Every structure is written in structure tokens, then in C-alpha cells.
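Please produce the structure of this protein holding fe (iii) ion.
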Amino acid sequence: MSDGPFDGRLKETPSQTAGPYVHIGTAPQSIGRPALPNQPGPVAFEGTGAVTVEGIVYDGAGEPVRDAMIEFWGADPDGRVGRNGLFGRTTSDFRTGVYRFRTARPGPLKAGTAPYIAILIFARGINLHLATRLYFPENRAQIDADPDLRRVSPSGRASLTAVKASDGEADYRFDIHLQGENETVFFDV
Amino acid sequence: MTVHPFYRRERNQHPPALTPNYKSSVLRAPFRPLVSPEQAELDWTGPAFGHDMLGPLDNDLIRNASAGGEALGERIIVHGRVLDENARPVPNALIEVWQANAGGRYAHSNDTYLAPLDPNFSGCGRTISGADGTYVFRTIKPGPYPWPNNGSDWRPAHIHLSIFGEAFAQRLITQLYFEGDPLIPLCPIVNTIPDPAIVERLVARLDFKNQMPFDCLAYRFDIVLRGRRQTYFENREEGA
Ligand SMILES: [Fe+3]
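Below is the modeled complex.
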């Protein structure tokens, strides 16, 4: 890249895997070190409208991915993003593979669309992060009518819809399948 | 109205998901094609980070985990600019870094490599780009390390970088390598990128003239994030 006259587009810097030690730089508390000041963590929102999501990222052999770092970004309960957007980060438990985060149940971004939380997955073996979305089971009608989801099969839509949790501390369960029969839908945003 | 504020990611500039010589990818690569939605507000916005969130030593890995001394190793600064595909500087980009110590060992509970830990080094730092997109951090050059893949493979010296631009669509995690490292072309993770010319964009260049005399060598590494379509950008500015 030169500092001279520019006559075309630059190419994006290529991605490389986050590797197994992503925690050091992005979630030090997960390896027993203090979080850095203002570092995003697994709780992005508390109070009225907050929901807790938990799940497991599974590989193609059905084994939990225990080294994943997951980011979530969503609107607030009124559907506002901008500076009101809610961002956070969580990691899979090294032993169980369970990840957990807490944020707002988002409002829809615009009329006629189903509200969702944008999710990115980083891990060893993932060369370029995977983007998916978490939709809510209460919004079945909006999901079925959502223009983005029209090009997704019914089973694909099911893979993007969290399940109401029946026990434990979480409100929703959202498992992610990287590969195979139940593969989650991933997006090229 | 269909708006795609950001250029589509050029997937051929990135490693594909399935790269069998890097064995961890085999069970973690999706098989189905990606779905391309319309870009929405969650894509062209993103979490905002300010310089006031950083501690004074966040960008100095030589001293930010000191147990009384400084980190051991070749002292370097890494600097460059964060730009977008339109060659516009990206200000306030958060760059988080992590790396092994000079012996090739990570301060991470899951790293069992026999090289010793450095009590004065955690390998964790952060910096934020300025108004002109420039960034800088100081560290020690990490050591290469072996890892189980095809028997004992070796990683070239590298620093992991996590970058937030102004939009979630620009999110990127990558690795920086060092000019002249003979391990670069032998590395299965580097070679997940099939085109050596593209790999070159991950190689930091020795920047001898910007050394800190009698202290640190300098390496230069520019980062390019996705860019907004010009027409959209202009329209958006009118109405925003
Ligand atoms: Fe590494």
C-alpha cells in the first residue's frame, strides 16, 4: 500500500483463525485474569426486557466446541441501534462447552421484519468468523413473513430460532451446529 | 428500496472454511452455502469505542503485565494505519492483540508447551486508531511454537489482531506475520489462504527508519476493513 495517488479499491485484510487462545486478548476473565477496563463481557443489558441465552456450539462430530468466542450485537427493546445498540462477548466453558449471555430482547429494526440478535462465532478451526442470527420463538408469524428469511428453508429457520428454556437460569436455549444434518444457517452479510 | 451500504466481502480474499491441511477446520467448516440477506442497521452500525476506555499501558505489552520487570525478548513497536476499501482512514478502530512470549508460550491455561512463561508478560494489549487511522503498540517479538497438526507443525512468529471498525460488517480477526520468517510458507494456517500474494498482506514490514533508537525496532502493518459504497455513503449523509 503506498501513500501515492489512489486509483482503485483496496483489498480487505484477509482473515485468519482466532485460534485456541483468543481468550487472552478478548476475554481475559475467562482464563482467570482481570478484564480490562470497559471490556465487553457477557452481560450487555439488565433490567426490564433482559433475557439470558445459553447454548453449545457443536462441531460436525457432535462434540461441543469448547474454545469458541461469541459476540452478540442487537437493538434495544424499542428496536433502536445506533449508540443504543447492545454489544457483548462470551466464551464457551472449557469443560462443558456452554456459553451464556444476557442482553435485551430486541425490538424489530423495521416494520415487517422479525427482531433478531446478530451473532458472530470465532474459534480455532474457523478461518473466517461465522455470522448467524438468533430469532425468538414468540415471533413465529414475523419470522415466517420476514423478507430475509424467505430464502431460508423451514429447517433453516428453525436453526435460527431459539428455544424457550424450561429449566435452569436461562430464558432461551440457542445451540449452533457448525456442520452436518442440523447445520445452522450462516450469513454472508 | 434495496441498500447494501458495504461492499460484499470478497470471499476469495479470505481463506475458505474447509482447509483440510489445517485439521481443526475439517469438523468446523459449514457445508451449506451462506445466505446473503439485505444489509440492515445491525450491519452498518457497531459498538463504539473511545480512547477514554483504554488504560495508559494498554498498548505497551512490555510493561502492562509487569511483576516488577519488563518483558523479555526483541523489543518492537508495531504501527500502521487502519483504512477502509476506499482508502479512507478509519478512526477510533479498536485493535485488541494477543500473542505468545519470546519463547513461543502463551499465558493461557490450555497452553502446555515446554517453553517457560515470562512473569512480566501476559501477551494481551489494546490500542485505538487516531483521527488519521494510525495506531501503534509496543511489545516483544513473539517466538515461533510447535503445535499438533501434521505431527509437529510450527507456527511462524505472529500476533493475533481483533479489529472493530465503525460497523459490525467490518469486524475482523486476523494474524500478523513478520517479514523474512522462513516458517511463513510452511504454515498450514497461513496456507489456508491459497494465494501467496494475498498472504503478503499479512506480513508486517521491517520499518528500520522508525525504530526507537537503542530501544525498539519498528514493524509496519496496515489494516484494510470493508468499505461503504460511495453512492450509499453520500445519500446516507444527506438524510442522516
Ligand atoms: Fe497463535
